[in-house]
Amino acid sequence: MSFDLSSIDVKALGKVAVLFGGSSAERPVSLMSGSGVLAALQAVGVDAHAFDPAERALQDLKTEGFARAFIALHGRGGEDGTLQGALECLGLPYTGSGVTASAVAMDKTMTKRIWLAEGLSTPRHLALSRAELTRERVRTIPDELGLPVMVKPPHEGSSIGISKAKGYSEMQGAVELALGFDDELLFEECIEGPELTCAVLGDGALAQALPVVEIRAVGGDYNYENKYITDSTEYLFGTLPAALEAQIQAEVLKAYRLLGCRGWGRADIMLRKSDMKPFLLEMNTSPGMTSHSLVPKAAAQVGLAYPQLCLWLLAQARLDKKA
Question: What is the pTM of this model?
């Protein structure tokens, strides 16, 4: 697997806006990602500048002569198709997936429906609106999915608002936490086993899956703190049999293509320890680029260092619409 950087003319990329910060619940993570990307691009000679959409009007991108944008925003307003739509209107090429793929992938429930329709495995689940979540209904959910139950706001990332209800008594608290971030909740069967992630770079038939990462967090809880703050989480490569890793990479590529993703993405997977069956959880279309993030770690395994990864991604920036 190789990614050719020799043909990239850094000067021809023009003035580049690194979009980070934003106003979503994932702003702190975005600030870390964007700072890293900005420094990396500047280090390889790109005329890159910080741009926080929470503090400036997007129209400034045009009036100030930016030629393209590197999206390092996470969550709503940056990863859900709304920003992508605005950049389409401005005619400013951007990194990552387009409007539709971004919008669909940001909705974990819709993503599951597409994957299931095409024969991909994802945990059993229920999607319920705020109005449906009476105490009586919440009590019945473990009867349908078993315990523990994963309770998630389906339009958030970075483990924000997610909790594992281990018993009936924990269900209501988990629901109230998640409702603080979303008006529809996703209840998911808890798959017991190793937690994995697999990144993809590229478009369509040329897209390539990077090596699979196994995540070993303290207490088996890969939460916000263990993702971004502590240094105790282990990220391991080569822990799976070669045939199983190839199977997971093939399924992730199919999942990526079905959603219409481009540029890059990262799928989260649970591997059921009882039979080593992988289950897709979600697809991230604007993955983290912090010091703890998984795409840079996987890219390094194929010889693509962090600055080169950022440059390669920037060079792929484009619009949905044809010129």
Answer: 0.93
Rounded Cα distance, 250 and 320, in Å: 25
Nearest Cα residue to 87 out of 125, 54, 106, 61: 61
274 is annotated as an active-site residue: no
Marked catalytic residue, from 26, 156, 195, 251: 26
For residues 190 and 192, give the distance between their C-alpha atoms in angstroms, rounded to a whole number.
6
Q: How far is CA 306 from CA 32, 96, 231, 311, in A?
A: 14, 17, 19, 9
* 225 and 304 part of one domain: yes
Based on the structure, what is the number of domains in the chain?
A: 3
Q: Is 80 annotated as a binding residue?
A: no
Closest by Cα among 219, 228, 148 to 187: 148
Identify the domain containing residue 207 by its residue range: 104-121+192-308
Question: Is 293 an annotated catalytic residue?
Answer: yes
Report how far residue 281's alpha carbon sits from residue 266's, in angstroms, rounded to the nearest whole number: 11
- pLDDT tens-digit profile of 18-63? 999 999 988 999 999 999 999 999 999 999 999 999 999 999 999 9
| Residue 6 placed within a domain | no
Residue 220 lies in a domain: yes
- CA–CA separation, 216 and 231 (whole Å): 11
- The SS3 of residue 314 is helix
Whether residues 110 and 225 share a domain: the answer is yes
Give catalytic status of residue 136 as yes or no. Answer: no
What burial letters (b/e) apply to 249-258, b meaning 16+ CB within 10 Å? bebbbebbbb
